[in-house]
Design goal:
Blueprint (H helix, E strand, L loop, with lengths): L5 H6 L4 E5 L5 E10 L2 E5 L10 H13 L1 H4 L11
Antiparallel strand pairs: 1-2, 2-3
Length: 81
Amino acid sequence: MSHVTRSQVQALIGKEIYAVKRDGTVVTGRLVRLNGDELILEPTDGKARTKLFLPLVLFDLLAIGTLPFVFPFGYDGFWWW
């Protein structure tokens, strides 16, 4: 396994690269900057990838579904006004 020096990485800033992580997965993208020992990449296809969308939707459905148990007679806003 070859190691890349900091000066070699700085020469690649702004170019599209692919990198192999320690666990063997390959990441591709445009090299934006070097932050310590981390390479900051921008996706080449222009779309951000997220794994948080499905849990967020499920949480919203849970919150809406449990609302009648929190306010059993409806929510009239600020009733003391």
